[in-house]
Amino acid sequence: MKKLFVTGFAATLILSSCNKDEKLQTASLEQQKLDYQVRQIELEKQKLAIEKEKISFEKQKDSLNKIEEEKEAERKAEANKVARKSTPTRSSSSGGGSSSSSTASNSGSSSSAGTTATQKKGWSSAAKGTVIGTVGGAAAGAIISKKNPGLGAVIGGVAGGATGYTIGRANDRKTGRVQK
Predict the structure, then answer these.
(1) What interhelical angle do 2-86 and 97-118 show, nearest 10?
(2) CB atoms within 10 A of CB 177
(3) 35, 62, 94, 138: least buried by Cβ within 10 Å?
(4) Do 98 and 129 meet the contact criterion of CB atoms below 8 Å apart?
(5) Per-residue confidence at 102, pLDDT binned at 50, 70, 90?
């Protein structure tokens, strides 16, 4: 009798646990679907926030570019004004050599002011190339010349500086910093 009671209890326990697992599995499957959808919505919200940031960044970038273009236009207009003022004007009167010499001296000082206004700030490519070539050539010359590293450094520095200057000058011509 005792064995029959234990067997019946075990069977009831097994059947009830199997039935609960199906309910739990369906409930957990539905919960997983909902959790997945919630995560997808969160990801979409994050993507939307990123897109908003991107758009605001692009607007800021565009406005900065417009400001930079306006500043560049103002610089060019100012350079044109300076260039117009620096052009020598010849008087039709034949007042002698003093008026022509004063005009020449004025145009010389004004034209140098005009070129400084239009020149870019910083080192030119020719200067950078010269320095880099000189240092690199001196180092290479000192390493290559085993018997007399000082002489090798001097020769390498001169050769490297000349090469660096030539390359830098060509780059300056390409960028328009120097005209022939």
Answers:
(1) 180
(2) 14
(3) 94
(4) no
(5) very low
Token pair in block for residue 178: 């120097």
CA-atom Rg of the chain in angstroms = 41
Burial class (CB in 10 A: 0-12, 13-18, 19+), 77: exposed
Single pTM value for the model: 0.35
The HSE-up count of residue 74 (CA atoms within 13 Å, CB side) is 6
Question: Residue 122: left (phi > 0), alpha (psi -120 to 50), or beta?
Answer: left
Residue 164 makes CB contacts below 8 A (sequence gap 6+) with 128, 129, 130, 131, 132, 133, 134, 136, 137
Provide CB contacts within 8 A for 124, sequence distance 6+.
168, 172, 177, 178
* The two structure tokens encoding residue 46: 């994050």
Residue 120 DSSP label: P
- DSSP reduced 3-state for 167: helix
In the block, tokens 């070539």 appear at 133
Structure confidence by residue, pLDDT tens digits, 157-168: 999 999 999 999
Q: Tokens standing for 105?
A: 């001296």
In this predicted model, what pLDDT tens digit does every residue of 128-139 receive, in sequence order? Answer: 999 999 999 999
H or E stretch including 2?
helix 2-86
